[in-house]
Amino acid sequence: MMRIVVATGNKDKMREIHEIMDHFGVDIISMKEAGVFEDVEENGTTFAENSLIKASSISKSLKEKGIDDAVVLADDSGLVIDALNGEPGIYSARYMGKDTPYPEKNAKIIERLSNVEDDKRTARFVCAITAVLPDGRHLCAEDTMEGVIAKKIAGENGFGYDPIFFLPQFGKTSAQLLPEEKNKVSHRGKALRKMEELLSKEL
Predict the structure, then answer these.
(1) What residues does 199 pair with on adjacent strands?
(2) Host domain of residue 151
(3) Rounded to an integer, what distance in angstroms lies between the CA atom of residue 49 and that of residue 42?
(4) How many structural domains does the chain have?
(5) To 5 degrees, how large is the angle CA 113–CA 191–CA 196?
(6) pLDDT digits over 6-33, tens only?
(7) Is-cis flag, bond preceding 88, omega within 30?
(8) Using CA atoms, how far apart are residues 158 and 174, in angstroms rounded to an integer?
(9) Which element (helix H / strand E) includes 102?
């Protein structure tokens, strides 16, 4: 059976990946569960570059530990806000400082957009996923979820910027959607399904 090691220590992200990929019939574990605790420097200029950097680095670390049969999956994702010239973009996790709580980050973004008209509040979540195969080849998939920035924080589901990302087709923020609703339309859900299709050809 194919084993996938995900290059993340984020429990929320792992939960989403399991929800989306558990039907795929492979063993999916985090890099920490595989015994790798590396903090990879994401110095790429795009989401795709950062996901490749992470996947390649963790793949190398696993091979050094004698684990050379795993597919390493890494995603880099973030929020792109048009009225803020694409911010926070690839710096989404580090926006206002890596340790700044997301409620504080979300409040700051709403404040920065306080004078922005409704039709100019467009934004999207972007997710780029790279899989590094045991033989060193890599596969890439990328997708988006389009929406607008809400005028107030709402919702208890999801994580990160979900409480301020409003989806007009649902009349709700991403954080107000049930997990199964979100996974059908989310950037990560769509990118993971593309990746599943690519990986299925490698089985």
Answers:
(1) none
(2) 3-200
(3) 8
(4) 1
(5) 165
(6) 999 889 899 999 999 988 888 999 999 9
(7) yes
(8) 7
(9) helix 102-112
Q: What is the pLDDT of residue 23?
A: 87
- Per-residue pLDDT of 75-109, as tens digits, reads 999 999 999 999 999 999 999 998 999 999 999 99
Cα 42 to chain centroid distance, Å, stands at 14
Annotated catalytic, 76? yes
Could you tell me if 55 and 74 are in contact, meaning their C-beta atoms sit under 8 angstroms apart?
Answer: yes
Element (H, E) at 179: helix 179-185
Q: Which of 75, 76, 143, 162 is catalytic?
A: 76
CATH number, residue 180? 3.90.950.10
User: Which tokens belong to 141?
Assistant: 């998939």
Closest CA to 173 of 79, 74, 75: 79
Nearest in space to 140 (alpha carbons), one of 68, 76, 79, 67: 76
Pairing, β 3-6 against β 70-81: parallel
Query: Crossing angle of helices 187-200/11-21, nearest 10°?
Result: 50
